[in-house]
Amino acid sequence: MINYDLRRIRAIVFDVDGVLSASTVGMDAEGMPLRTVNIKDGYAIQLAVKRGLHIAIITGGSSEAIRKRYAYLGVEDIFMGSAMKKDVYAHFLQNNCLTHDEVLYMGDDIPDYEVMSLVGCPCCPADACADIKQISLYVSSYEGGHGCARDVIEQVLKAQGKWMDNAKAFGW
Question: Per UniProt, where does substrate bind (predicted)?
Fold first, then answer.
């Protein structure tokens, strides 16, 4: 269980590589990563959007497949090619009238460290690096790309009374 008042969470921000996709990825002939996605993570993301949580993606990756996948699930804030995630995060907060304590961020590696040090509820997958685990309030029992996003979204929605509470929960 996440040791945080999850009723305060208005936004959940995810990294992609190592969080929404597995840490090890294949590559195509041009050297572009072929990321995996977890269907249960996808279900939870689209449900969170429907239930009013603001979901955002901040990634260093720049694959159009990322944009298409998460836009399909209803995510509007998709920040790709983010070399300095802290700057993108500050912009995201300002544009959405959010405070740090209203944000859960899930990251897995050093590029996520600065943002995770700011948010109210830093979380990570089971296979995150040691430095990220050390600053996380919650380490999921699931690895990146294997349900860690579903884990935190489900906990937030349950805490807010929005998990399986009406017909929106039972469809895509």
Answer: 17
